[in-house]
């Protein structure tokens, strides 16, 4: 397996860029897909956002300074692309981004790729009631099982703040799920 430093060197090299980029996609596409899917909800939308993410990475790899891990930088792009997608969708529909998310959740049952049950739908609705930052933190910790140190690099926030956000998010979700 290629290490991140080698991969980055190859991505910045004109002779190896395309081959290295294919390796990068293979390495990260599934994890990024599920990260994006947890934010935008729909399979088709997640595919579109994933494609946009990789296009941005390809076009901007030369701007990567190495201040964080490559993985963290790509996740940050995927997160921003997902949020931008939701906001643009909301603007098109002339609704708030919160309403756009609830709309996406309510359409999950018609998504042929959604394999969840009533409990999963209720959890998604509970997550949608959280502020954007708490949603991101909850999804990254609960679904992707990222470490706080990784989330800190991706979201550019202290680990302490992330732990507090996660704790608050869990309490709010528990309250939502236990109300009648």
Please explain how this structure is put together.
The structure is a single chain. With 180 residues, this protein is mainly alpha-helical. The chain has two domains: 1-111, Orthogonal Bundle (Rna Polymerase Sigma Factor, Chain: A); 116-180, Winged helix-like DNA-binding domain superfamily/Winged helix DNA-binding domain (Arc Repressor Mutant, subunit A, Orthogonal Bundle). The protein contains nine helices and no strands. Helix 2 crosses helix 4 and helix 3 (43-60) crosses helix 4. It is globular, with a radius of gyration of 17 Å. The termini are far apart. The mean pLDDT is 88. GO terms for molecular function: DNA binding; sigma factor activity. This is RNA polymerase sigma factor.
Please write out the topology.
Blueprint: H1 4-11, H2 17-40, H3 43-60, H4 70-93, H5 97-106, H6 118-128, H7 132-143, H8 148-155, H9 159-178
Helix pairs in contact: 1-2, 2-3, 2-4, 2-7, 3-4, 4-5, 4-8, 5-6, 6-9, 7-9
User: How many E strands?
Assistant: 0
Query: What percent of residues adopt helix (DSSP H or I)?
Result: over 70%
**Helix and strand element order:** HHHHHHHHH
Uncertain residue segments:
none
The number of distinct structural domains comes to 2
User: How far is the first residue's CA from the last residue's CA?
Assistant: 50 Å
Shape assignment:
globular
* Fraction in beta strands: under 5%
CATH superfamily of the largest domain: RNA polymerase sigma factor, region 2, helix turn helix motif
The CATH class assignment of the largest domain is: Mainly Alpha
